[in-house]
């Protein structure tokens, strides 16, 4: 789908204002970073940080693995984890959640977005590479577990809502937005297979011009006007940290 629309969905689920905002797995950061106005102090984290252009002065960038960073507990009012959870190792999923719970202040919110286990999940082009690697691994021809995109054991996983609720416990579910349907994976296929895409995964730093295929972008945007519910290709979920778990989160992160 058009990525400015994806960012709009994430923005709509964030509070109007946060004292501190953490963006985990932020992807390439540009001068028009879409969440800069949501907080006077924004921290962007990515394991392969790419920054281009002049950034707003309120953005701090950290290059590294979020799960191995020593971030202060209860430090952030809001956290974004957009299209990152599906890329981490199976064994690191619980640690990722504990780190998020620890960094989030009591009363704070986290917004995550992931591919959803919807009708057209099987059309996801980013399932192909890990599937091939998984087959090669069974033949002893591939030794890796993470192929640079995702854990080949789970592939480019599409999650069900209940899975996310269970994995992000003890955080409490606040709001769910389903989005995208069939044109979302079709645009991803078109970009990945084109000379313009060169096999890259779509990311928030890509402009509409870089994406190309304007008719597919328009079709993706039209899909946003309909609620496909549990048939949707993506889901964004916001969770709330109750004050009652404030004292437990700092020690649990390690």
Short description:
By secondary structure, the chain is of the alpha/beta class. The protein is 28% helix and 19% strand.
Question: How would you describe this structure to a colleague?
Answer:
It is a single chain. The protein is α/β, with parallel strands linked by helices. The protein has one domain: Vaccinia Virus protein VP39 (Rossmann fold). The chain is 28% helix and 19% strand. The protein is built from 8 helices and 7 strands, in the order αββββαβααβαααβα. The protein has a 7-stranded mixed β-sheet with strand order 3-2-1-4-5-7-6, sandwiched between helices. β4, α2 and β5 form a beta-alpha-beta unit. α2 crosses α8 and α5 runs antiparallel to α7. The termini are far apart. 39% of the residues are buried.
Distance between the termini: 37 Å
Helix/strand class: alpha/beta
Query: Whole-number radius of gyration?
Result: 18 Å
By DSSP, the count of extended strands is: 7
**Which residues form runs of ≥5 with pLDDT under 50?**
none
What is the H/E string? HEEEEHEHHEHHHEH
Q: So, the CATH homologous superfamily?
A: Vaccinia Virus protein VP39
